[in-house]
Fold this sequence. Notes:
Blueprint: H1 3-28, E1 46-47, E2 53-54, E3 79-81, E4 88-90, H2 106-116
Antiparallel strand pairs: 1-2, 2-4, 3-4
Amino acid sequence: MEFNNLVTIIFLVLLILLLIIYGVFYTKISTKPYPETQDVCPKQWMMDGSGNCVNPVDVSANSLAANGNWANTTNTPGYTISPTFSRGSFNPSDGMWSSFNGTTSDICGKHSWAIKNNIEWNGVKEYNSC
């Protein structure tokens, strides 16, 4: 066997081994959900004294009323009327978020609700692990 052929064969064997090792390590790397942090309430929503996220005034671009979904409040987990502001609100810690719309986690329930109602919610609407 000539020297050039031997070097080529050794190089190809090493290359294949390195690719196999890389593939094994690559599959073990877990992807992190993005973004890693979420706001407690949707954008422009306030938190009342009870810890509920209060729907902003109807003229707000990020309110349920502005998006045509004000009447659909029964589909919002933890929906109530805020005693402080006398407007619709929801509890972001309500246990029903984890099963909202067939989801299996709180963040995915909130993600589904934000998409369905066209509500901007930093860290929730763009969540990528649902």
